Amino acid sequence: MNAIHRRCCALLTLVAVFGCTVAAAADLVVIVNPGSGVRSMTRDEVAKVFMARYRQLPSGTTALPMDLGPDSLERKDFYMRLLGKQLPDINAYWARLLFSGRASPPHQVANSAAAVDAVAENKGAIAYIDKRQVDTRVRVVLELDD
Amino acid sequence: MRFARHTSMRHSIALRSASIVIMFTFGVGLLFALVSVPLMQRHESGRLEAMVSELAATVEPTVSIACFVGDKALAAEVARGLLKNHAIASVRIVAGANVLADLHGEGRVASDTAVASIQRSIASPFNAEEIVGELTLVPDVREIRAQAGSYARYLGVILVLQAIALAAVVVYVGLKVVVGPIKKISDELHLLEVENGKHLAMPVGNERNEFGRLTLDVNALIDRLSALLGSERKQRQEREHSERRLRLIFDNTESGMFVVDAAFRLLDWNAALARELGLSAERGVERSVPRLDLLLAPHGERVRALVERTRFDARAIAEDFEIHIPGQRAAKWLNLLLQAIEPDRLHGMIQDVTARKLTEAAALALAAKDALTGLLNRRGMELVIDRQLQAAKAGELPSITLMMLDLDWFKQVNDTHGHEGGDEVLQVVARRLQSAVRPADIVARWGGDEFVLLLNETTDAASASILATRLIERLSEPITLANGAVARIGASIGLATFGGEIDSRESLLHAADGAMYGAKQHGRSRVGWSSPLSAGGRAAG
């Protein structure tokens, strides 16, 4: 009786942990417009574009980075995987740059689908989305695995 | 006056120590300040460097972002922020070849080599490995100096305050602990009367320190002093008593007493001495200081010698002096006794010994005279002969002739008229001899019916012989006795003269005796000469 109860508990915990992992562990990919002339990008190139150091994509096209909703799981995972930073750090970074107005944070879109649409429509656009949302209108230049 | 002196003393000790403390502290403070300025500068440089370094660390994330993005506005803002700090002279932010900001603070002096500027490489905000820029901060050297100076001033002020506090403490301690007890003791000492042996009061709280010991010592001193004073007072009283007693004796004694100095001046004398020497009884009435040697005028030399002898002799020395006091008839004999108190101060006593001298002279005369005839006796004659012989030997007399006379038939007178008759005859003989010779010639009864005559004026042999013959004639005259009876006697005479072998009393007498014996041998009532030179003498008669 007691042993059964204990096993049930362990199972429940396992399910919960696994479920979470599945939810967070969604593979992220960086996508660009196929017409941008960019085939692939390094992690560093992506970071510099997103953090406003580079204003152009490696092909020379003016870069237009896209951010997902500020509290979205993808955004959190993206910055953590790309720079090893939490979202408050990223927000603080932009807050400092906002002062001069010379550099601005990435344009915001609601979700991955909106991001895909935006990338498909703009030549210099660059965004990160759940790998499962990728379609033919965009090109993956970098995969951000766990 | 006294108060003022005390106040000044009080001030001087306390103030002097305070000013010494102040001067010393100021000196040390100055030294410290001088030494501390470079130390402070170094310390301040270090502090500033650390501060600048901290500042750099503080702004580093922002600078990193500015460099990462190449944001000049952000970089300039950071630089301006940094320049708000006075210690920073200039800020330079460089991202690669791109100078994002290079600002210099207004009126600030860039540091020379003394303080190194801070240079920091700025890493990317997302990759510590990647250098995206450089931050250079230059500290303000003037600020460093000003800070160091203000620190030194601060130190100086602290030291001055400390000096003032110390000086105040020293003045307080000086007044309370040192000057107070000293003043108390000194005031008490000032008013102290040692005679009644009053002690100093022990200053409260100082029983076991130097003041306590000082008080004890002073009190012991007071005890000793008052004991000494007491015994001295007693001694003085005793001395006064004994002096008064002595003065009484001195003034009232029958002996003449005086004090004489080495120059023979009388310094003091009593009434008895004044009477004795005819001085005024009142000292000071005399016009000049009387002199002992002049008072005993004819004996001045002896008096001076006596004084000289007595001055260096512990014993008292006495001598007799015969003097004639003016206005007094008879001579006076004075016994002068001197005793030296100091070599320059002699005590003397003079007594009239005239009575004693007269008694002595009478006794002497009595001893030298024959009681029956009143002539010199044998002993007196011997003394006279001795004196004359001494004078003759000294050449003072031309010659001495001695006559030895022996009565003839005196035994028969005694037998016939008894001893009274004999005595009467001897007295008559004495008178006849005395009247026959010259005044200077001396007649003595030698013993029994023997007489000796010393011829002082009849010096030549012829005159002597004539005198001898006349004497025999004179004595041969009949003598009427008191009872009416008549006695007849004769005399044999021997003569001797001093000189040649006859050189003493004995030889002179012996020679005269021999001559007289010879005269008797040749039949009585003759004159015999001892010396063959006196020719005719022996044959004469």
What does this structure look like?
The complex is a heterodimer of chains A (146) and B (541). Chain A has 146 residues and is an alpha/beta fold. Chain A has one domain: D-Maltodextrin-Binding Protein, domain 2 (3-Layer(aba) Sandwich). Chain A is built from 5 helices and 5 strands; from the N terminus they run αβαβααβαββ. Chain A has helices at residues 2-24, 43-50, 73-83, 87-98, 112-121; strands at residues 28-32, 64-67, 107-108, 125-130, 139-144. In chain A, strands 3-2-4-1-5 form a 5-stranded mixed β-sheet, with helices on both faces. Residues 14-23 of chain A have low confidence and may be disordered. By secondary structure, chain B is of the alpha+beta class. Chain B folds into 4 domains: 2-163, Beta-Lactamase (2-Layer Sandwich), CATH 3.30.450; 196-252, no CATH class; 253-357, 2-Layer Sandwich (Beta-Lactamase), CATH 3.30.450; 369-529, 2-Layer Sandwich (Alpha-Beta Plaits), CATH 3.30.70. In chain B, 53% of the residues lie in helices and 20% in strands. Chain B is built from 12 helices and 16 strands. Chain B has helices spanning 2-69, 72-83, 141-191, 210-252, 271-277, 292-295, 300-311, 354-368, 378-393, 410-436, 461-476, 505-521; strands at residues 88-95, 98-104, 118-124, 127-139, 256-261, 266-269, 317-323, 332-342, 345-352, 401-408, 442-447, 450-455, 479-480, 486-487, 490-497, 527-529. In chain B, the strands form 4 sheets. Chain B has a 5-stranded antiparallel β-sheet. Chain B has a 5-stranded mixed β-sheet with strand order 11-12-10-15-16, with helices on both faces. Chain B has a 4-stranded antiparallel β-sheet with strand order 2-1-4-3. In chain B, helix 1 runs antiparallel to helix 3 (141-191) and helix 10 packs across helix 11 (461-476). The longest helix of chain B is centred in the first third of the chain and has 68 residues, at 2-69. Chain B is rod-shaped. Mean pLDDT of chain B is 83; it is low at 1-5 and 532-541. Classes of the chains: A alpha/beta (146), B alpha+beta (541).
